[in-house]
Each structure stands twice: as C-alpha cells, then as structure tokens.
C-alpha cells in the first residue's frame, strides 16, 4: 500500500521549522516538501507508511534511501549490493573503510545534490559528503547508518576559452585535473599527491607546490558553485555572496556542498617542473634542519622553490631518516636556493625534471591505502632551535610505539611562507586567522600509518604527547601560533576555534544566514564543525 510522502513531511516539517531563524536565504516558514516539489520531485510516488511507524534514524534512512533509489535508480547503492564493499574499500584509511552507510548516493548534478539534502532534512537521516576520501579519521566523509553522498560523478575539468580559469568538479582527483590541463600548458593550485580529492583539499585550505608564488588552493578559487541547506544552488565569489566566499576559503564542510570550483589557472608549459625526494640518515639531521629553515626564510627570494621535510622511522631497517621532498615550479634542476640540501649526502634521490602529474604519482606511491591512519597538526612561528626540538621530541615520543605492526611514524614539516600568507589576504581574506605579521610559520603535520586496531590508543596518545610537548615548548619560547590546519588535524583538535574568536563568530553568523536550521552542523555531523572537534576530549 502506497502512502504519499506528504504524511512524512507533516510529521517532520514541524521539527525542521522549530529552530528556524530569520534568514534572507531561508525563511522561517521554509517548507522542505514544497522545495522538493519545486525541484520536480513527484512526492506522491515516494515511500511507504510502514517505514514511518518508527522514527528512529534507521527508519528515516530507509525512507530516504528508498526515495533516492526511486528517483535516481542505480545511482544509489545499498548494503548488500555488490558495489557496496568496493565503494567503502575506496577510502584511504581503514578507519573510514569500516564505516557502513545505510546507502551511498552518487548525484550527477547539483540539483540531485539539492534533492538529497532536502530528503535528508525530511527524514532526518544524516549524511556525509565524499570527494577523494583521504580524510583519515572515521566519519569524516563516510557515515555509519546514513547517506554517504559520493561526489564522484561531478567530474568536469573545463578550462575557460581564454584559459584563465578552470571549472573543476569535486569528483576529481588532482591527477585527473593535472593530466587534463597538461596539454594546454596550464595547471591550478591543488594537491601534491595524485589520489587526493579536489573537494576536501580545497574547502580546508590546500597547500600546493606553487603556493609560495600564488597562495593556497582556497585562495585561488575564483568562485564556488555551492548547494546550501535549503537546496538552493548559489555562486560564491568576491562579488556574489562574498560572505559565503570568505567562509568557504578554509571553513570546511560547514556551509554547503560545493558542486563546482572555478579555479584560477597558472601557466605551466608542458606541465614541466623539477622535483623529487632526497633521503638522508641521522648524522645529517642538523644540516637538514639548517637547510629547511633557510629555504623557508629565504622563500621570498625564489618562490618557485618548495619543500616538504619529513622525519620518519623506517621499521624494517630500524632506521631514522629525513626525507626532503623538494620541488621547483620550473623545469630547472638544482636551483641555487636548494644548495644546502643538495650538499647533504643522500641515500636515495629521485629529483628530476618531470611533469606535475608524474611527481604527484611518486608521492601517491608512498601513501598507500588500506592502513590505519592518523594526522595531527600544529603551527609555530618558524625558529631553527624549535624546529630541531620538534624533531627530537618526535623521535623520543615514538620510542614506545615503534614496535607496532606496520607502523610508519612521521613528523612532516613545512613552512607557511611569506608568499603563502600574502595569498591569504587576496580578495577580502580568508577565515584561517593566520596573521602575516607573525610569519613565516612552521606547520607541523604528524602522520602515522599502522596495521592493528589494538595499537590505536597508544599511537594516538603518542601523537597527543608530541603535540602537547611541542606546543608547550613553543609557548615557553614565545613561538606558539594557535592555528590548526584542518586538512592535517586529528578528530580531537578544535580547528574552527583555532581560527580565533572573531573568525569563529563570523563563520557562525554566516552559517546562520545560509543554513539557519544548522543542517550542516547536525545532519552532516562528521568532520570539523563550528562548535567543536569531531571527538571531545583526548585519546
Ligand atoms: C596522502 C595525502 C596527501 C596529502 N597531500 C596534501 C597536500 O599536498 N596539500 C594539502 O593541503 N593537503 C594534503 N593532504 C590533506 C588533504 O588535503 C585532506 O586529507 C583532505 O581532506 C582530503 O580531501 P579529499 O577530498 O580527498 O577528502 P574527503 O575525505 O573526501 O573529504 C574531506 C572533508 O571535506 C568535505 N568535502 C569534500 N568535498 C566537499 C565539497 N565538494 N563540498 C563540501 N565539503 C566537501 C568532506 O565532507 C569531508 O568532511 C593530504 C592527505 C593525504 C592523506
Ligand atoms: C509543507 O507543504 C506541504 C504541501 O506541499 C503541506 O502538506 C505541509 O503541511 C507543509 N508543511 C508545513 C510544516 O507547513
Ligand atoms: C522502533 O525502534 C526501536 C529501537 O529504536 C525498537 O526497539 C522498536 O521495536 C521499533 N518499533 C517498531 C514498530 O519497529
Ligand atoms: C634499532 O637500533 C637501535 C640503535 O639505533 C638499537 O638500540 C635497537 O636495539 C635496534 N632495534 C632493533 C629492533 O633492532
Ligand atoms: C643536480 O644535482 C645532482 C646531485 O645532487 C646531480 O647528480 C645532477 O647531475 C645535477 N643536475 C644538473 C642538471 O645539474
Ligand atoms: C614518471 O615518474 C617515474 C618515477 O616515479 C618515472 O619512472 C617515469 O619515467 C616518469 N614518467 C614520465 C612520463 O615522466
Ligand atoms: C594512489 O594510490 C592508490 C593506492 O594506494 C591507488 O589506488 C590510486 O589509484 C592512486 N591514485 C592515482 C590517481 O593514481
């Protein structure tokens, strides 16, 4: 027996409107059912009353997923379908792979994203959005018992006719983007590892090989096409909905689902540049810190140069190593700014002139999927003594965990250079709250992979200890900067608060305008929300 969906909307419409505020985007009497009808959804053809007898989230999600399936057919994958495990295994970390959504929805256009958000509101079935699936912790882009909206079909890479911008869908990995643009002699400011998604990297910030010249990915977005909580498709740019544009430059998934990024293009003839990794052993570690510090400090003298330095432990060889990944934005080998690094004896060296896409493939190979993963972040004013201390604290604190099966612990160091900070100020600025006057900064990213769930707690606790000690030391040296980079943060870190009280308040008021009922706070609970970290407390 079929019952019209309006019965459901009557029951739940009240819930939806209770907390509604005055918003120019969504009026207090916003009717989700009518919004769906306006989008051409034939409500009367949708689910059955028996699913309504229980308003647990499971029955809500059953209704939501059945409705999506009636509307979108094979774009919906349910538990038990043959494609289901293949999808969940496609996440980077095991923590995300082992989350089981009620269904997976693969919208092929922005309107379908709108419909799925409205159906989530009606049924109160929670959702998550997935782009490249590289966020490490559980629930960041996959949701237990809810709707995982996979953006993979939103995969356009379309340069403008004058090649100054490129429309890029969040369904792309950076590899697709770079290989498509290479024959046109252009590139964009994006990820450095081929398999990373456009969506997560760009909404959280985005450090690229070219950021010392142009700034971060989020600071090189000309405009966003975004589906808001009311299912409205808006453009956010410096001139349209500029408050939303500001918020999306690092505010994460708190404001809507971005269905298209219009990215500024840069010239990169043949896609060619120089780069690779040089590894060295403990006797070189002081020279490595010197080289790292000097390349960071001297960045304004040659912003083509970029670096990522990881101190790591190689379990099978029982060796501590320094891996310096060096890049140059032109096909020029051994630029003089790298002279100190290049004088350090290397046990391996892959630097060469090669394409951007090729370099991202090399880095992808060193970040395999299918392992347990954790990422942590902290920021400090760049100081050579402190950099060396961070290295030493890292090696000390990993001693109790280096016996964990399959562990690869690393402390990855980067400099947020003057050039990056200048990029953040473009077009009205971003909400990250990093004052250019205190830079350049050391960005610490702890990252560890391992095999057994039984080792989770002690590994997470070691990460917490390294953060605590490096922060306390920085505080005592007057070097602490309260900014936590979203894309590297752990589930225990309060990213939005780290942007500063003013920026947090601004983001909350922008969210109140575009999402007055807090859909992206409550119905999309994963990842870094406005009012706190994904997991309260410490590991
Ligand atoms: C191996 C590796 C290499 C990395 N390299 C870099 C690097 O070079 N530079 C750098 O800055 N960071 C880097 N990172 C960090 C990376 O930016 C984050 O992990 C990022 O979240 C990954 O994006 P994703 O789309 O793959 O992830 P997902 O897990 O798909 O998404 C992450 C979060 O973003 C949200 N989201 C995704 N798409 C959208 C959208 N369209 N609209 C709204 N919200 C959305 C998701 O809901 C989720 O909460 C790297 C990470 C890894 C694991
Ligand atoms: C929303 O609109 C539907 C008709 O489309 C109506 O039946 C329902 O009562 C409305 N809900 C609320 C809460 O006003
Ligand atoms: C409703 O859900 C609860 C648990 O959430 C369950 O105990 C109960 O049996 C359900 N009732 C019906 C009618 O399905
Ligand atoms: C690893 O090397 C250190 C010396 O650097 C040594 O003390 C330790 O016993 C070695 N561990 C193993 C498991 O071989
Ligand atoms: C760059 O330096 C490396 C040694 O670090 C050397 O092997 C290589 O030939 C140099 N390349 C050029 C083009 O000078
Ligand atoms: C890409 O890089 C690999 C090493 O990572 C190299 O062997 C290969 O020749 C490169 N291919 C191209 C087309 O540059
Ligand atoms: C990156 O590596 C993973 C394996 O760990 C692989 O599945 C994926 O296809 C690679 N991505 C690209 C774009 O090559």
Question: Tags for this entry?
Answer:
single chain; 539 residues; alpha+beta; Uridine Diphospho-n-acetylenolpyruvylglucosamine Reductase, domain 2; Vanillyl-alcohol Oxidase, Chain A, domain 3; 9-stranded antiparallel β-sheet; binds flavin-adenine dinucleotide
How would you sum up this structure, described in words?
Keywords: FAD, Flavoprotein, Oxidoreductase, Signal. Belongs to the oxygen-dependent FAD-linked oxidoreductase family. This is FAD-binding PCMH-type domain-containing protein. By secondary structure, the chain is α+β, with helices and mostly antiparallel strands. The protein contains 18 helices and 19 strands. A hairpin with a 5-residue loop joins strand 5 (157-159) and strand 6 (165-168). Mean pLDDT is 94; it is low at 1-20 and 48-54. Bound molecules: flavin-adenine dinucleotide and 2-acetamido-2-deoxy-beta-D-glucopyranose (6 copies). One 2-acetamido-2-deoxy-beta-D-glucopyranose (NAG) binds next to helix 1 and helix 2. Residues 6, 9-10, 13-14, 17, 31, 33-34, 37 line the site of one 2-acetamido-2-deoxy-beta-D-glucopyranose.
CATH architecture of the largest domain: 3-Layer(aba) Sandwich
Mean pLDDT: 94
Radius of gyration: 23 Å
Query: Multimeric state of these chains?
Result: single chain
> What is the number of domains?
3
Structural class category: alpha+beta
Quickly name the level 1 CATH class of the largest domain.
Answer: Alpha Beta
Number of strands: 19
Stretches where pLDDT is under 50 for at least 5 consecutive residues are 1-20, 48-54
Report the principal-axis shape. globular
Q: Span between N and C termini?
A: 50 Å
Main sheet makeup? 9 strands, antiparallel
Separate helix tally = 18
Helix content: 25-40%
Family: Belongs to the oxygen-dependent FAD-linked oxidoreductase family.
Keywords: FAD, Flavoprotein, Oxidoreductase, Signal
GO molecular function, one term: FAD binding
Signal peptide: 1-20
